């Protein structure tokens, strides 16, 4: 059974920079040697995440890249995909897009913004995953 985890942004360090939470999730996946696909909203978000993964922690090295930009994608544990681009299936997906991830994976992570208006569509996404039989979890971050 697939699993969907919703990470609700609440801590001050993530309120102003929600991509920092994505970096923390990517670090945990990297530490567990779990190939991860990050679904960015657009090219600008993919590039911002790419830059932040290099600099968010001086002690962390997370092999990552934007899908389609290099031939050695399989060596990057974290692969960032932009809409319209192709990306290989990975066991863990961090979804930053507006639609639920319905592709193959063992686990999908949904980052939920602090803005109450932005949370409403994610409540619907929770219901969609539940209807599909996903095991659901919620974490306050």
TrEMBL record:
Q: Which Pfam families match?
A: DNA_pol3_chi
Record-listed E.C. numbers: 2.7.7.7
Q: Name one GO molecular function term.
A: DNA-directed DNA polymerase activity
Under the heading InterPro entries, the entry gives: DNA_pol3_chi, PolIII_chi_sf
Q: Tell whether Disulfide bond is among the UniProt keywords.
A: no
Q: What are the record keywords, sorted?
A: Nucleotidyltransferase, Transferase
Protein's UniProt keywords contain Metal-binding? no
Would you say which domain of life the source belongs to?
Bacteria
List the SUPFAM superfamilies: DNA polymerase III chi subunit
User: What NCBIfam families does the annotation carry?
Assistant: PRK05728.1-2 (NF004346)
Q: What is the name attached to this protein's record?
A: DNA polymerase III subunit chi
What is the originating organism of this protein?
Stenotrophomonas oahuensis
């Amino acid at each position: 059974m697939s699993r969907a985890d919703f990470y609700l942004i609440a801590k001050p360090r993530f309120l102003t920079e929600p991509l920092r939470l994505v970096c923390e999730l990517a670090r945990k996946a990297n530490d567990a040697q779990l190939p991860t696909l990050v679904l960015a909203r657009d090219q600008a978000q993919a590039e911002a995440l790419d830059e932040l993964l290099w600099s968010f922690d001086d002690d962390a090295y997370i092999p990552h890249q934007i899908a389609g930009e290099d031939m050695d994608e399989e060596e990057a544990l974290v692969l960032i995909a932009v809409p319209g681009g192709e990306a290989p299936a990975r066991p863990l997906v961090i979804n930053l897009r507006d639609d639920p991830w319905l592709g193959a994976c063992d686990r999908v992570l949904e980052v939920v913004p602090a803005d109450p208006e932005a949370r409403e569509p994610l409540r619907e996404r929770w219901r969609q995953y539940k209807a599909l039989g996903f095991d659901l979890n919620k974490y306050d971050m």
